Amino acid sequence: MTVRIVTDSTSDLPEDIVQRLGITVVPLNVHFGTDSFKDGVDLSADEFYDRLLNGPVLPTTSQPSIGEFAQTYEEVADADGILSIHISSKVSGTYNSAVQATSEAKLSCPVEVVDTQQMSMGLGMTVMAAAAAVQKGCDLEEATAVAKRASELAQCIALFETLEYLQKGGRVGKAGALIGSLLRIRPMIIVRNGEVHELAKERSRPRGIARLQRTARDFAPVDELAVIYSTTPDDARAVADNLSDLLPDSKEPIIARYGPVIGTYAGPGALGLGLLRSGPA
Q1: CB atoms within 10 A of CB 71
Q2: From residue 54, how far is each of 12, 41, 127 by CA, in Å?
Q3: d(Cα 48, Cα 230) in Å, to the nearest integer?
Q4: Which end of the chain is more exposed for a tag (fewer CB within 10 A), N or C?
Q5: Per-residue pLDDT tens listing for the chain (281 residues)
Q6: What is the separation of C-alpha 103 from the centre of its chain, rounded to a whole number of angstroms?
Q7: Distance CA 256, CA 266 (A)
Q8: b vs e for 205-235, b when ≥16 Cβ sit within 10 Å of the residue's Cβ?
């Protein structure tokens, strides 16, 4: 029995994982003024961050259209089912587009759409768990249950250099208390119930990185761990090395990059973690 896994580009999944697990990624849109791009398709992360830092306007984003989702579903419909797994509906219209597309697409197989209440590699971890289950032979119902359980076990936390980008993008959510501090702080956020919440305030980047690492250990034991960065790969590798002992069976942490859509709100210098906590045996 074949199940196809679909997600969106806010999952920030590295390309090698996408290919290995047979995942189909629907890109969101990034707009710099009148210039529009497909996230990760015709705008690379390097090109995006160069524009973000040096361009005259800040970017905006938009979800894929219903038609784009419908076309994607039709392209992968040579299956017994499609499992479409997406960013929190509280911060993006992507999930709603995916749901509406199930009625628009001409399909001969069922489609399940999951709102993970996650973003970035919190979403990515959920997608990976479902895709791995499918490769082991799970059917659509079983894979959907795996995705829903994984979304409950996933955690997404981040250290930002500034909340400027999150605030201007209107995605500050429940972390609003971090704004307006007279101190020069490094804000830290955590995704809870599909929204961005305040985690901590740190006075320096080294203290923020140390807090990230302590928080990861607080969530142990974990089955998967990803370190995500926007513009500081060396910091990401150092954090991955520090936390590698958390993983079982000689696994290594994944190093991923915030793509253009998430990078629009995270900004340069962002460093985060995606974790999949170990569920009950």
Answers
A1: 15
A2: 23, 21, 33
A3: 10
A4: C
A5: 699 999 999 999 999 999 999 999 999 999 999 999 999 999 999 999 999 999 888 899 999 999 999 999 999 999 999 999 999 999 999 999 999 999 999 999 999 999 999 999 999 999 999 999 999 999 999 999 999 999 999 999 999 988 777 766 444 444 444 444 445 688 999 999 999 998 998 989 999 999 999 999 999 999 999 999 999 999 999 999 999 999 998 899 999 999 999 999 999 999 999 999 997 64
A6: 26
A7: 14
A8: eebbbebbbebbeebeebbbbbbbbbbbeeb
Residue type, position 275, single letter: L
Instruction: Classify domain 3-152 by CATH number.
Output: 3.40.50.10170
Q: In the CATH hierarchy, which top-level class contains the domain 154-277?
A: alpha beta
Structure-block tokens of residue 207: 């203290």
- CA–CA distance from 218 to each of 208, 240, 274, 280 (Å)? 15, 16, 13, 17
- pTM across the whole model: 0.92
Q: What are phi and psi of 24, to 5 degrees?
A: -100, 125
Domain map (residue ranges) of the chain? 3-152, 154-277
Other Cβ atoms less than 10 A from the Cβ of 61: the count is 20
